[in-house]
Design brief:
CATH architecture of the largest domain: Beta Barrel
Pfam family, one: Ribosomal_L25p
Subunit structure: Part of the 50S ribosomal subunit; part of the 5S rRNA/L5/L18/L25 subcomplex. Contacts the 5S rRNA. Binds to the 5S rRNA independently of L5 and L18.
Domain Large ribosomal subunit protein bL25 L25: 12-87
Helix content: 10-25%
Function: This is one of the proteins that binds to the 5S RNA in the ribosome where it forms part of the central protuberance.
Number of domains: 2
Strand order of the largest sheet: 1-4-5-6-2-3
Distance between the termini: 72 Å
Keywords: Ribonucleoprotein, Ribosomal protein, RNA-binding, rRNA-binding
Strand content: 35-45%
Radius of gyration: 24 Å
Largest sheet: 6 strands, mixed
Number of helices: 6
CATH superfamily of the largest domain: Ribosomal Protein L25, Chain P
Number of strands: 13
Length: 204
């Protein structure tokens, strides 16, 4: 649990960001809907160390503390830093749905030569009590052979404290041969081959 003292300010978002703050909102059954700003370095450090599903003890000036999680994060596509956060008030005794990143374990052992891992699902939605939410789900790919895949159903059986949502047959990752470029005939370059007209072009 982390505690942040939040200062509510009536300033434009651009100015808040220049001050090292992240414009945010918190909502829930008891808190209602409150606009606020949080320290950018503090939340960045928190998410890096504990993941985006970290449980936060949020203290708003003049009000009581609220137990929250980051429900939605908006990022700066160029800088990669958080630009806006939607905090959701949670009940520690009630299950919630959360998005969890997928981490492939042993990828370097199977991606050799012309084989390639196809990571179809980089995130999974899980349902659990807040304290049981995983920060990430590791998927061991070291035993995959060409044509093999790991599906949600393969992970669901091993999940003890949480439920993985989604179609059980959806593939998370698979192993296949990499695409090979077609070689141009001897004496011709790829550009020469691409420039040759098709039968349809020649008829026009």
């Amino acid at each position: 649990m982390r505690q942040f003292v939040i200062t509510i300010r009536n300033r434009i978002r651009k100015k808040l960001r220049k001050e090292g703050k992240v414009p945010s909102v918190v909502y829930g059954k008891t808190v209602g809907n409150e606009g606020l700003a949080v320290d950018a370095q503090a939340v960045d450090k928190l998410f890096r160390s504990e993941g985006r599903n970290a449980i936060i003890n949020l203290a708003i000036e003049g009000k009581k503390k609220y137990t929250v999680m980051a429900h939605d994060l908006q990022f700066d596509l160029l800088k990669g830093n958080v630009r806006h956060i939607d905090f959701l008030e949670i009940n520690m005794n009630e299950e919630i749905d959360a998005v969890v990143p997928v981490i492939l374990k042993g990828a370097e052992q199977v991606e050799t030569g012309d084989t390639v891992l196809n990571n179809q699902l980089s995130e999974l939605t899980v349902r659990a009590l807040p304290n049981n939410l995983p920060s990430a789900i590791e998927v061991d790919v070291t035993k995959l052979s060409i044509g093999d895949s790991i599906r949600i159903s393969d992970l669901a059986a091993a999940a003890k404290d949480y439920t993985i949502l989604g179609d059980a047959e959806d593939a998370i990752v698979s192993l296949s041969y990499g695409s090979q470029e077609t070689a141009a005939p001897e004496g011709e370059t790829a550009a020469d081959t691409a420039a040759e007209p098709t039968s349809t072009d020649a008829a026009e």
